[in-house]
Design brief:
Blueprint (H helix, E strand, L loop, with lengths): L4 E5 L1 E3 L12 E3 L2 H9 L3 E5 L6 H4 L5 E4 L23 H17 L3 E4 L1 H9 L4 E2 L20 E7 L4 H6 L3 E6 L4 E2 L6 E7 L4 E6 L4 E4 L3 H4 L4 H15 L2
Helix pairs in contact: 3-4
């Protein structure tokens, strides 16, 4: 059976982030995402941000993976431009938002992780909580602006696509984000929550879109439940 081809948008790497490249910048994606896709039997297809048309990017593609990274431009969802924000890449926002919309129109299976979940929510008309540490009663979610990753439990809706993929109704998850889901985008519904009530998972009808705010790729090498999210994407992509 031919391996399903999964498009993975990359992000900008500044010149100082790439040793021995001198003054050159580049594009990249952290290896654990690629490794998790390969373990699932899928073939990653890396896509740099730029002028590409999203519908053309999806030609010949069986699935879509949106990875973590910097914040979505607040202007994309009517957010406060003065709120704490980092790592905004307008061309990446444009490509990924267009890819979510095109994937939804075509029925392309999609897994969106951390920033990817936020992109998916914004692409479908949702909004974001812009800085969780400012909110009362919120547990540590590993803000990348101040801290490293943290582990916390996520409760999953029984029978949901994310619960089926992970084989659990409750998971210990690695978290590294300072923004959260506020108004939920059209066609999505929450199916996972942290103990503080923050939405940690969203999905669309039929499970073609699965979005998680935590980072399953970090623990997927040793946690079959987290690897199961990538395996489920590959299975859905292989039967399109």
């Amino acid at each position: 059976m031919t391996a399903p081809r999964i498009a993975v948008p990359t992000y900008h790497l500044a010149a100082e982030q790439v040793p021995r490249w001198a003054a050159q910048d580049g594009f990249g994606v952290p290896g654990p995402y690629v490794d998790a896709l390969r373990r699932s039997g899928a073939r990653p297809v890396l896509v740099p941000p730029g002028p590409e048309d999203a519908k053309e990017v999806l030609d010949g593609i069986d699935g879509l993976l949106l990875v973590g990274g910097g914040d979505v431009d607040p202007a994309r969802y009517g957010g406060d431009p003065a709120a704490p924000t980092y790592g905004v890449e307008p061309d990446r926002d444009r490509l990924e938002i267009d890819l979510v919309v095109a994937a939804a129109e075509r029925g392309v299976p999609t897994l969106a992780i951390c920033r990817g979940a936020q992109v998916a929510n914004v692409a479908l008309g949702g909004t974001l909580m812009q800085h969780l540490p400012d909110l009362p009663g919120v547990v540590a979610h590993g803000s990348p602006m101040d801290h490293g990753p943290v582990a916390h439990d996520v409760r999953l809706e029984p029978g949901s696509a994310v619960a089926a993929a992970t084989g659990a109704d409750r998971l210990s998850c690695t978290s590294h984000h300072h923004q959260g889901i506020d108004r939920v985008g059209e066609g999505l519904r929450p199916t996972g929550w942290a103990d503080d009530g923050q939405i940690e998972a969203l999905e669309g009808a039929g499970g073609l879109m699965v979005a998680v705010v935590w980072h399953p790729e970090i623990t997927a090498p040793t946690d079959p439940g987290q690897q199961g999210l990538f395996d489920a994407l590959a299975r859905r992509a292989s039967v399109r």
